[in-house]
Specification:
With about 270 residues, this protein is of the alpha/beta class. It has helices at about 25, 70-80, 115-120, 125-140, 160-165, 180-185, 195-200, 225-235, 240-255; strands at about 15-20, 30-35, 45, 105-110, 145-150, 170-175, 185-190, 205-210, 220, 255-260. The longest helix is centred in the last third of the chain and has 19 residues, at about 240-255. The two termini are about 25 Å apart.
Length: about 270
């Protein structure tokens, strides 16, 4: 088993870099670091506790009044080309062609068995989808939900699709680019999907219901108060939101991420 039992076989001064694991599972010593690829394939995080919502770095973000927008602008240009961590269908979808007549919330589905759900979320994907479907059919808000299947494993979406099929004001799609859906949506709801980070670059209202890298920059969802949560998206003033996103990306790229396209050896701050 790949865990801390390998550490005694190395000199005491050895620093370990463990991929795709966290302290909670690997249980490494004080010289063990955990690294993971981000939603941007050339950027990685290295942390003493884990990755994503499990990283120790998450709580270090604070909103600043002075920051550079360079990181945000650079990554905004990247997604404007239609790029994403996972291949997307050709763009060209529209609400008119899809016959969507009311505002909609875009929900990119995550793999139910993913470790980021297991370790970083207090609710399952099935419970998340079920709660949203029950809410949207009963709320007084004139809104619907558009769910998109995860492109890596559409078969794993089957139990979620069954839940979505029970809702009158919810749809499920697979053949639409997230870069068409995000700008058209009234808000983007995620547990802790990397799509939330991409939605920030589209300047969309983002709601996260689980622990994530970007939780300090977006709206924190309340699964037991979905009316209140949606109202928060309506109250999210656009200029303040974008400034918050720009500040977060400046911090994330300058202080947290390691750009493997920029160097051949790890920088001194690791």
């Amino acid at each position: 088993m790949f865990n801390n039992t390998i550490e005694p076989f190395f000199p005491a001064h050895t620093t370990f870099y463990v991929p795709h694991r966290e302290a909670v599972s690997f249980q490494g010593g004080p010289k063990t670091n955990y690294y993971m690829q981000t939603v941007f394939p050339w950027l990685f995080t290295i942390d003493t506790q884990g990755w994503g919502g499990g990283g120790a770095f998450v709580t270090r973000f604070t909103q600043q009044t002075a920051f550079s927008s360079t990181a945000f602008d650079k990554l905004s240009d990247y997604i404007k080309t239609g790029q994403s961590k996972f291949p997307q269908p050709q763009q060209g979808w529209s609400v008119q062609a899809a016959n969507i007549t009311r505002p909609f919330i875009f929900v990119p589905l995550q793999l139910p068995h993913d470790e980021t759900i297991f370790y970083h979320s207090d609710i399952s994907m099935a419970a998340f989808v079920s709660a949203l479907c029950s809410w949207v059919d009963g709320t007084d808000f004139d809104v619907e939900i558009l769910f998109k299947g995860h492109p890596v494993n559409l078969e794993a979406m089957a139990p979620l699709v069954d839940i979505i099929a029970t809702a009158k004001k919810a749809r499920y799609v697979t053949d639409v680019s997230i870069h068409d859906l995000i700008p058209a949506a009234a808000a983007v709801y995620v547990l802790n999907s990397g799509v939330g980070q991409e939605a920030m670059l589209h300047e969309a209202p983002v709601v996260a219901f689980a622990r994530s890298e970007y939780i300090g920059a977006v709206i924190k969802g309340e699964i037991d108060n979905l009316d209140g949560t949606f109202q928060k998206t309506l109250n999210d003033e656009p200029h303040s939101r974008v400034e918050r996103y720009k500040c977060w990306y400046a911090w994330y790229l300058d202080e947290i991420c390691h750009d493997v396209s920029a160097f051949t050896t790890l920088p001194g701050r690791v």
